[in-house]
Write a structure and sequence with these properties.
The protein is an alpha/beta fold. The protein has one domain. The chain has 4 helices and 8 strands. The protein is globular and about 40 Å long.
């Protein structure tokens, strides 16, 4: 899945089916600007609004703005992300398991990177340790 980062308050011009877009949000969360709005072009090319997601980089300190590549398929191990509400995850789920899993892995979402039964998941996230370390 291809992700393209768009400026604040913009929308994709002519999206291809299967493309995802992260629209920057200027929300200042205690001097951190990490919020993006996820859009996805479905099989018919219709853009679906999925909701807000925070993308952070391990080791960030305030003031900071998340700097992600303008186009990417997968973020590297320095990043992690979390959706901001239930509606976001429900929207992803509606797109089907393959799209949901691919999108979550590409954005380095802990829910897919760490096994559900990992007793050290919280410690790994807090210390920035990945399963490949």
């Amino acid at each position: 899945m291809q992700f393209t980062v768009l400026p604040f308050r913009t929308r994709p011009d002519s999206p291809n089916p299967g493309e995802a877009f992260l629209v920057r949000d200027n929300w200042d969360d205690y001097r951190f600007k990490t919020t993006f709005y996820l859009l996805y072009a479905d099989e018919g090319g219709e853009v679906r609004e999925l909701g807000s997601v925070k993308i952070d980089r391990f080791g960030m300190s305030a003031p900071a703005t998340t700097s992600v590549p303008e186009d990417f398929e997968t973020l590297d191990d320095a990043f992690f992300s979390l959706g901001q509400d239930d509606a976001y995850y429900e929207g992803l789920r509606e797109l089907g398991a393959d799209v949901q899993q691919t999108a979550a892995f590409a954005r380095r979402e802990p829910t897919v990177l760490l096994p559900a039964n990992d007793p050290f998941a919280e410690v790994r996230l807090a210390e920035g340790v990945t399963l490949s370390d």
